Amino acid sequence: MTAVQPEPRRLLASFTVASREGVERLALRRVSRALPPELLSGEQQERLQTAVAEATMNAIEHGNRGVARVPVQIQVFHSPGEVVVSISDQGGAPAEVKGPEPDLELKLIGEQPPRGWGLFLIRHMVDQMDVTTDGARHTVWLTMRTGAGA
Amino acid sequence: MADAIVTMEARRLDERTSVVDISGEVTSSCEPALMAAYEAAGGPRAQRLILNFSGLEYMNSGGIGMLVTLLVRAKRQHQQLAAYGLSQHYRQIFELTRLDEVIAIFDDEPAALAGAGRP
Fold first, then answer.
1. What crossing angle do the helices spanning A42-58 and B88-97 adopt, rounded to 10°?
2. Residue B1 in domain
3. Which of A8, A22, A47, B3 is the most interior residue, by most CB within 10 Å?
4. pTM, rounded to two decimals
5. Measured distance CA(A110)–CA(A113) in Å, rounded
6. CB distance B89–A50 less than 8 Å?
7. CA–CA dist A65, A147 (Å, integer)
8. Which domain holds residue A86?
């Protein structure tokens, strides 16, 4: 009797973008092009695109501190039941600066700044978000479930 | 690549009501364009400001922050804000961020005009 091996994670795309404001729009388009259309519904595609754009902006602004020559690496994987996008910068482990959840009421009365929605959006757009750090390499993993698990 | 491609044009429908037609990519870099459109729409004199998102291609968290800045200004002037033309995806984002509780959302311009007087 032969044991059934799980299908390995397949790399669909791997690319880098320079750490410049605005390249997140290129990143989301390239991720979208890498995904076979049958994997995610239209709504899932849009949610993943928003999460990829926000995570890429964070990698540029907070990870690589806007230094254009330091690249952000983006990889797209598919394995049965899920699509995973990884976004890596060179910022190392971020300092513990976990602020409060954005609260519109507090923003409207000036007790929180108007911005600061990025991480909140990422968390709500994808099925799972994980963060790993390996030396200077800091990676955000965005997972969308496919098929029956979606 | 840094500058988002966006146009924001104000239409004054009457002394109290104006529409801002937004097309393209809404990010934090659009703030000068939005504030210019706000002034062209009557600034603090307009009582009702309706944002037309029918031409919206992309909006990020910076764009949401910019809308919050506009809301702060509108709230200070006791102005009502409404919006129409949002895709399902951006409606979902307005719900998540609770922007839909302070910006009344409508399907189209006639509905927004009819409902713009509502709180």
1. 50
2. no
3. A47
4. 0.91
5. 7
6. yes
7. 38
8. 10-149
Partner-chain residue, chosen from B1, B29, B93, that has the shortest CB–CB distance to A23: B1
Q: What is the pLDDT of residue A71?
A: 97
pLDDT at A97: 56
In whole angstroms, what is the distance from residue A13 CA to residue A27 CA?
Answer: 11
Structure tokens at B104: 């009344």
Q: Per the structure block, which two tokens stand in for A55?
A: 């995570």
Give me the CATH number covering residue B104.
Answer: 3.30.750.24
The CATH number assigned to the domain holding A21 equals 3.30.565.10
**Which chain A residue is nearest to residue B65, measuring alpha carbons?**
A115
Query: Are B93 and A54 within 8 A, CB to CB?
Result: no
The domain containing residue B38 runs over which residues?
A: 6-115
- What is the nearest CA distance from A7 to chain B, expressed in angstroms? 32
Distance CA A94, CA A108 (A): 28
> Is B61 among the domain residues?
yes
Domain count, chain A: 1
Q: Which of B1, B2, B97 sits opposite A104 (nearest CB)?
A: B97
Q: Is there a domain that residue B60 lies in? A: yes
* DSSP annotation of A96: S
Q: Predicted confidence band at B5 (pLDDT cuts at 50, 70, 90)?
A: confident
Q: Tell me, yes or no, whether A64 lies in a domain.
A: yes
> What is the arithmetic mean of pLDDT over B69-92?
96
- DSSP, residue by residue, A37-64: TTTS-HHHHHHHHHHHHHHHHHIIIIIS
- The token pair at B19 is 């529409």
Q: Per the structure, how many domains does chain B have?
A: 1
Of residues B98, B86, B33, B81, the one with CA closest to residue B58: B86
Residue B97 domain-assigned (yes or no): yes
Question: Is residue A94, in this structure, part of any structural domain at all?
Answer: yes
Q: Exposed, middle or buried by CB within 10 Å (0-12, 13-18, 19+), for A147?
A: exposed
* ipTM reported for the complex, 2 dp: 0.88
